[in-house]
Amino acid sequence: MAILERFRLDGKRAVITGGSRGLGRAIAQALAEAGADLVLVARDADTLAQAQTQLLTTGRRVDVVVGDLSTPEGTETVCQTILERFAPIDILVNNVGGRRINVPTEDLALADWQRILDLNLTSAFLCSRELGRHMVQRRQGSIINIASIAGLIVFRGIAGRTYEVAKAALIHLTRTLAADWAPFGVRVNAIAPGAFLTDANRRWFQEMPQLRTKVESQIPLGRLGNPEEIGPAAVFLASDASSYMTGTVLVLDGGHTLW
Ligand SMILES: NC(=O)c1ccc[n+]([C@@H]2O[C@H](COP(=O)([O-])OP(=O)(O)OC[C@H]3O[C@@H](n4cnc5c(N)ncnc54)[C@H](OP(=O)(O)O)[C@@H]3O)[C@@H](O)[C@H]2O)c1
Questions:
Q1: DSSP 135-168
Q2: Number of the ligand 1 atom closest to the C-alpha atom of 97
Q3: Does residue 256 sit within a domain?
Q4: In a domain, 257, yes or no
């Protein structure tokens, strides 16, 4: 097969959690351009509809599911809807997540700890369990977990360490699932982004204007990532181009973790 053909995703259907904005939206664009049909999940119906309209211009089928993945119950409901309406699913991108709190550990409420774990880790576990079970039965599938370099190092200048813990666990969930599901032809990999310019970070930079300069000074390439720069990595991991890769973490951070 010609080399670029191995990156094609024609005839595949991809679920992207948090696919309406930010990195998830950029991944959706890339997967659709590579030929995949999409199912996008997010809470806000209007933003989802907007993303759907834009993504339909790729010529792919684009479906949306409105749901909240911040609770186990919400996540299970979303998975049921996806399986009832859109199975079979070939590609799952567990992208929902975020830090959302800047509270030192000595003051961190248990409820906040749990909420951030549920959002970043439990949602990925449940989506992988529910959709991955069918991939295992079908002997094919690719799961991509959007972790963070915060799962590899500890960020300076911001607290809320549940995030680091959840992303580190997500990376190890990636490895355990990869080992367990390799015999069934299901590959599981992670992407660990550094700092990208999405709404989540715009909010942090608004609250703490000095943070952006500080973060940029920690990145050898000297700038934040643009969301579209994650797309090619997602296509690679989703497609046969990475057929011999499972359990890996692709670091996409402008060199942030080099120093
Ligand atoms: N941006 C970065 O620099 C960066 C760096 C490292 C890792 N990451 C990781 O990359 C992922 C995406 O980050 P991002 O910056 O692109 O985030 P974002 O801009 O805040 O976008 C988040 C997406 O997820 C959806 N979403 C948020 N909460 C949800 C919930 N409870 N249930 C369902 N959907 C939900 C949002 O839509 P609704 O609000 O409508 O629900 C939106 O589509 C996260 O896992 C994050 O930890 C990001």
A1: HHHHT-EEEEEE--GGGTS--SS---THHHHHHH
A2: 45
A3: no
A4: no
Per-residue CA distances from 97 to 10, 164, 239 (Å)? 28, 11, 23
Going from the Cα of 227 to the center of ligand 1, the distance in angstroms, rounded, reads 12
Pocket test of ligand 1: the residue of 94, 95, 201, 206 to mutate, having most ligand atoms within 8 Å of its CB, is 95
Which pLDDT does position 156 carry in this prediction?
A: 87
| Token digits of residue 18 | 């948090």
Looking at residue 150, its pLDDT comes to 98
Ligand 1 atom with the smallest distance to the CA of 224 is 3
Domain that holds residue 201: 3-249
Q: Rounded to the nearest whole angstrom, what is the distance from the C-alpha of residue 6 to the centroid of ligand 1? A: 29
Question: Does residue 258 fall inside a structural domain?
Answer: no
In this prediction, residue 217 carries a pLDDT of 94
pLDDT in tens, 200-239: 999 999 999 898 999 999 999 999 999 999 999 999 999 9
Residue 254 lies in a domain: no
Look up the CATH number of the domain holding residue 76. Answer: 3.40.50.720
Preceding amide of 104 cis, omega within 30: no
Best mutation site among 16, 17, 21, 170 for ligand 1 pocket (most ligand atoms within 8 Å of CB): 21
Cα 192 to ligand 1 centroid, rounded to whole Å = 14
Query: Is residue 63 within 8 Å of 39, Cβ to Cβ?
Result: yes
Looking at residue 91, what is its pLDDT?
99
Question: What does the pLDDT read at residue 209?
Answer: 87
Low-confidence spans in the chain with pLDDT less than 50: none
Q: Please count the structural domains in the chain.
A: 1
